[in-house]
Write a structure and sequence with these properties.
alpha/beta; binds adenosine-5'-diphosphate; 55% helix; Rossmann fold; 2 domains
Length: 201
């Protein structure tokens, strides 16, 4: 157990999930912000109950799960509703991430957050690791994975912190423009570094 937390981030398609899974293979506990943000609005959760109280049951699917598309529509053009939702969910997501990190069984844990810097969550971690690739490769890999258009990927890239900004704020950078096996070696080196850092804290 450790209190040492590495914040892992990178733009869409950079390889965050791939890198996170390689650390997990080495026994590192992962906490994924995307998963946590779904858990806090799961069926039966306090988060979902509060959303239904506020927006009414039309925000639910027939299954009783949150209708994400309907919710997106309700907040899309209404900044007041968007703020209401953020002030409900952001503290819940943060608390749940911290609770899961506290239960980590490895010497250090990794918090995977696509918008780590954008949402100020770098404040929760001891150091940051940015997965870096060129926008061209980012576009290609995302299109191959999600079957979306180049334009859609570029819009998402534009909505995220810039490559330069992320690199400037990173404690460590992992270049993922090579092969998966090259990536594995880089992860192994960083793993040793983090084990040493965790040992000192
Ligand atoms: P993110 O989680 O940052 O969006 P992913 O880890 O899902 O990115 O990677 C995006 C896509 O690129 C996935 O389909 C993944 O399998 C692939 N990928 C990741 N790293 C490499 C690599 N080094 N070589 C080839 N393909 C890769």
């Amino acid at each position: 157990m450790s209190n040492f937390i590495v914040g892992l981030t990178g733009g869409i398609g950079s390889g965050k999930t791939t890198v996170a899974n390689l650390f997990a293979e080495l026994g590192v506990t992962l906490v994924d912000a995307d998963i946590v943000s779904r858990e806090v609005v799961a069926k039966g959760s306090t988060g979902l109950n509060k959303i239904v109280e506020h927006f009414g049951s039309s925000i639910l699917l027939p299954t009783g799960d949150l209708d994400r598309a309907a919710l997106r529509e309700r907040i899309f053009s209404n900044s007041q509703e968007r703020e209401w939702l953020n002030s409900l969910l952001h503290p819940m997501i943060r608390e749940e991430m911290l609770a899961q990190l506290k239960k980590a069984t490895s010497p250090y844990a990794i918090l995977v957050v696509p918008l780590l810097f954008e949402n100020g969550l770098d404040r929760l971690v001891n150091c940051t690791l940015v997965v870096d690739i060129s926008p061209a490769l980012q576009t290609k890999r995302t299109m191959d994975r999600d079957s979306v258009s180049a334009e859609q990927v570029q819009n998402i890239i534009a909505s995220q912190a810039s490559r330069a900004d992320k690199l400037a704020r990173a404690d460590d950078v992992i270049d993922n423009q090579g092969t998966i096996s090259a990536l594995k070696s880089k992860v192994a080196l960083l793993h040793n570094k983090y084990l040493k850092l965790a040992d000192r804290t």
